[in-house]
């Protein structure tokens, strides 16, 4: 497995833009074999001799990085990127500036070429990032590194264009739901599941966790943080039996029997800036034996706390909000339990990044395969941005880095050799320096 490739620091005489182009050239060379292996596994090359999977991937990557509002605009701009055209093998031999594939061929391939092609590439990049970030897990907050956050986002689709969707009483609410497992310490989407709108969040657990023994075993010892959309006493019981810890809010209609009141520990001063004020820490039994559809969970912990909202979250009133948090983790302080649930907001920021900056709602088509391809392309661009941040020594991914990656695609030099550095120093442009970390 290839590690994350690093590039020279700013003092090595190579400008940041040129270093990024050099890194991108090397990544495109390395990912070619991965794409070919993934295409062979899913039969993506069947009856497509003149438009290979690697060429398709280069076009889709350019579209995902450039953030053009339409695929047709990305197709037109791609023809002007001579270095990327040469790297993808889409040059024409007649000397014209046209690409070796028509736009109609590209659009039809989005609906017919299996989305599993990108799934194989995403798994490869995820494995690389996990292996490169093992040291990050050990040096970061040990509590944060054990968290897995699950949430979903909705992609609205028209029933007139996406006729494969199930019919609904309210056609305006048609679309697909994308489920994510998110690891906040590594900024990685561990599991992605695309489901119908008729499958709610609780039912998605049966498909993504409880119905997969391997995934359930991988979660053992970790803490799953979810919101009320995943609230289910029966499923909570099955997770506890598998050794998976849980942090969630108490449902307002849930039956709670208080077994004992725990002494309230003083809140740590560095716990989320002192915003958390613990009001009660209780040992409870959740659920009622009279409810035949539910389950009874003894020995749970209920932490009640007031949290002052941050000013930048948009709350008009500084009045503290009341939280009632359920968990089975007794090894944490009460304020830490509340902090764990507040960290659930990280997946909301991640979904905002996918939709706002990576243009997830801009789909490649309206067929089922094109919608899946759009989701996996967005994840692929996110992972590529993480790899670029690691290679450049940046603290994290950012919209500015995404813009630089798009510029690197447009100005990719076909003569760049990633194995040799230039000997002539290149002065960086003023005002475009990014904060760099010491190389690891």
How many alpha or pi helices? 14
Low-confidence stretches: 7-14, 134-139, 416-440
How many strand units? 9
- Sum up the overall morphology in one term: elongated
Task: Provide a quick synopsis of the model.
The chain is built from 14 helices and 9 strands. The protein has 440 residues and is α+β, with helices and mostly antiparallel strands.
Could you explain how this protein is built, in words?
- This protein has 440 residues and is an alpha+beta fold.
- It is 39% helix and 16% strand.
- It contains 14 helices and 9 strands.
- The chain has helices at residues 16-42, 53-66, 71-78, 82-88, 103-112, 116-132, 134-139, 201-208, 213-218, 233-241, 334-342, 345-356, 368-392, 399-410; strands spanning 147-156, 175-183, 188-196, 223-225, 245-249, 256-261, 276-286, 297-307, 321-327.
- The chain is elongated.
Topology record:
Elements lengths: L15 H27 L10 H14 L4 H8 L3 H7 L14 H10 L3 H17 L1 H6 L7 E10 L18 E9 L4 E9 L4 H8 L4 H6 L4 E3 L7 H9 L3 E5 L6 E6 L14 E11 L10 E11 L13 E7 L6 H9 L2 H12 L11 H25 L6 H12 L30
Parallel strand pairs: 1-4, 4-5
Antiparallel strand pairs: 1-2, 2-3, 5-9, 6-7, 7-8, 8-9
Helix pairs in contact: 1-2, 1-6, 1-14, 2-3, 2-13, 6-13
